[in-house]
Amino acid sequence: MSEQGVPPEQIVQRIRESRAVYRLPASELAKLKSRGVPDAVLDYMQQTYLDDERRRAYYQAGPYWGPYGYWWGPPPVIIVHRHR
Q1: Within the chain, where are the H helices?
Q2: For the chain, what is the domain count?
Q3: HSE of 12, CA atoms in CB hemisphere, 13 A
Q4: pLDDT > 80? residue 58
Q5: Would you say residue 58 lies in a domain?
Q6: Is the four-CA dihedral 79, 80, 83, 84 of positive or negative sign?
Q7: 69 Cβ contact partners less than 8 Å away, ≥ 6 residues apart
Q8: In a domain, 79, yes or no
Q9: Helix 8-18 and helix 39-60, axial crossing angle in degrees, nearest 10
Q10: Kind and range of the H or E element at 12?
């Protein structure tokens, strides 16, 4: 799409709509950069991978039985304030 002159914002929007995840090694990202793919597009492609990994880590934490029933993901962080 970059070679066809499609603006970066439209490319990112199409990627967002497709919900694709791009697990590309740095060498592939460098090749795309050398072929004229804008930084904004490359950054978004890399972000799809980071977001997917974050989501996977969250769900791999497994189910949690909390005080209010079943909950998926890691247990919530509970902050306790102590009064002196």
Answers
A1: 8-18, 26-34, 39-60
A2: 1
A3: 13
A4: no
A5: yes
A6: negative
A7: none
A8: no
A9: 20
A10: helix 8-18
**Residue count (the chain):** 84
Cα 10 to chain centroid distance, Å, stands at 19
In the numeric block, which tokens belong to residue 55?
């989501």
Which of helix, strand or coil describes residue 1?
coil
**Whether this model's pTM surpasses 0.85:** no
pLDDT digits (tens, 9 = 90+) for 5-33: 899 999 999 999 999 899 999 999 999 99
Burial of 45 (0-12, 13-18, 19+ CB in 10 A): buried
Domain enclosing residue 34, as ranges: 8-72
Q: What is the dihedral of CA 57, 60, 62, 68, to 10 degrees?
A: 30
Distance CA 24, CA 52 (A): 13
Structural domain contains residue 13: yes
